[in-house]
Specification:
alpha/beta, six-stranded mixed sheet, binds ligand BES, binds zinc ion, Aminopeptidase, single chain, Leucine Aminopeptidase, subunit E, domain 1
């Protein structure tokens, strides 16, 4: 979507007018009759009025009173989604946005919501052109939002769209190797360092977790390293972002059932997608922060040579794992990446993974399950970012006792816990491979939606990108 700026209203465009309870409508471009119609709607508790002026539409939305700044922003994003639907329904291509509100974070959030709602994944439709949203341009006032604010937002949204598209791509396109190639293309386009290791190199590095998950597959694994190191980085030691890149999770020999389970598992690389999208956003916006991204990638399949429950696997850091369920594959590949991260002496490592059904069971799609060993102020900064962008962080209890749940009879640990606290025991497994401040984010509930949820849409949400961008921007 394109954004342009004007200094004065009245271009005879279709228009969205955003008001609140303080609006008298006098400052808006509505004429007396139109204002009267809107006020009459308001008296009937109708918040959304659609006015026809000649061949043009005027959409007037009255925002509710917010309890907090974060809630106000989220309301504005959701209202923007409602407006986006109407603009596209009326086949409007260019709309002017008129704010009759003062709160600048609500204004920006409205534009963000409008942009995020306009996402589509049409690649595989024969008649994609017919399905394309009509809305291609919004017109804003230069005195209300700055060009810099909008450019920053465009770059963030572009990162979110990249992440959504990667998640929406099926395995028939997005194999581990294709993921690496896609990241390579992006790295050249936006400007960050990138390399990936092939199976030979992964074998030489003794990444036993990644190799064992890949054993049942025909396609080779990859291990991807992204780096952005601006000259004036504010951090001496890098922040490392690790993303689970299971391009498809059949469960392996511990095969998943199809309905509402395996059929959603092209999304099992959403952690990887979040890392890639975050890189796009931070590099395009030139944030002064040194960040490294690590993405172990493979599919998880029950091929002839697949690893079997009971196998003992030697991991990258030399520890051994009794693998008792091949569907707990995410932790196997992440463990190697977390161990590999050690060499960077990171100030903080954050991993993102669609790791457990238990995280979905615990809090559904309304938040991100979090835990880890990072300092309180690091976790608190992440929580603040989460509330601001409405990718909320729900910190789990992380008692020492949970560690005993993954004790094995014959190896250093097993790859499953008991029937309870599944998302936490997965975290405890990962912790064994970390020797630095670390936060684990289980995005299983938030990464992929089977029904539409406002500006997040349906299917891949790109969760993590807006969260990490805001966190890294404000990192102290
Ligand atoms: N990719 C799944 C987790 C998942 C479930 C993601 C639902 C998104 C939606 C993961 O690899 C998995 O299968 N985890 C198992 C672990 C269990 C075998 C210990 C699970 O949660 O059932
Ligand atoms: Zn699995
Ligand atoms: Zn998985």
């Amino acid at each position: 979507m394109k954004t342009s700026f004007i200094s004065k209203s009245g271009n005879n465009l279709d228009m969205v007018i955003i008001c609140n309870d303080k609006s008298t409508l006098q400052k808006t471009p509505l004429d007396d009759l139109e204002s009267k119609q809107v006020k009459s709607d308001w008296s009937k508790k109708i918040k959304f009025s659609i006015i026809t002026r000649g061949s043009k539409k005027l959409l007037v939305y009255k925002l509710d009173v917010a309890k907090s700044m974060d809630q106000g922003s989220e309301m504005a994003r959701r209202v923007a989604c409602v407006c986006n639907k109407e603009l596209n329904r009326y086949k409007i291509s260019k709309a002017e946005i008129f704010f009759d509100i003062d709160n600048s974070s609500e204004k920006l959030a409205f534009v963000e919501g409008l942009m995020l709602s306009n996402y589509q994944f049409l690649k595989y439709f024969s008649e994609a052109a017919d399905k394309k949203n009509s809305l291609v341009e919004i017109v804003l006032y230069s005195n209300q939002l700055t060009k810099n604010e909008i450019t920053e937002l465009e770059h963030i949204v572009s990162g979110v769209f990249t992440a959504r598209t990667l998640v929406n791509e099926p395995l028939s396109y997005l194999t581990a190797l294709q993921l690496s190639k896609d990241i390579e293309v992006l790295s050249k386009k936006v400007g960050f360092r990138f390399q990936y290791f092939d199976k030979k190199k992964i074998t030489a590095l003794k990444m036993g977790g990644l190799l064992s998950v890949n054993k049942g597959s025909i396609d080779p694994p990859t291990f991807n390293i992204l780096e952005y190191k601006p000259a004036k980085a504010k951090n001496k030691q890098p922040i490392v972002l690790v993303g689970k890149g299971v391009v498809y999770d059949t469960g392996g020999l511990s095969l998943k059932p199809t309905p509402n389970s395996m059929d959603l598992m092209k999304s099992d690389m959403a952690g990887a997608a979040a890392v890639v999208g975050t890189f796009e956003a931070i590099v395009k916006n030139q944030l002064p922060i040194h960040v490294i991204g690590l993405i172990p990638a493979t599919d998880n399949r029950p091929g002839e040579n697949a690893y079997v429950p009971g196998d003992v696997i030697k991991m990258h850091n030399g520890m051994t794992v009794e693998m008792l369920n091949s569907d707990a594959e995410g932790r196997m590949i992440l463990a190697d990446a977390l161990s590999y991260a050690q060499q960077y002496k990171p100030s903080l490592v954050i991993d993102l993974a669609t790791l457990t059904g238990a995280a979905v069971a615990a809090i559904g799609k309304e938040g991100i399950v979090a835990m880890g060993t990072a300092k309180d102020n690091q976790m608190n900064q992440l929580k603040t970012a989460g509330s601001k962008v409405h990718e909320r962080i729900a910190e789990m209890p992380y008692y020492d006792e949970y560690d005993s749940y993954i004790k094995s009879d014959i190896a250093d640990m097993k790859n499953i816990g008991g029937p309870t606290a599944g998302c936490i025991t997965a975290g405890k497994f990962l912790e064994r491979y970390t020797k630095y401040d670390w936060i684990h984010l289980d995005i299983a509930g938030t990464a992929f939606l089977t029904s539409e949820d406002t500006y997040k849409g349906k299917n891949g949400t790109g969760v993590g990108v807006r969260l990490l961008y805001d966190f890294l921007k404000n990192y102290k």
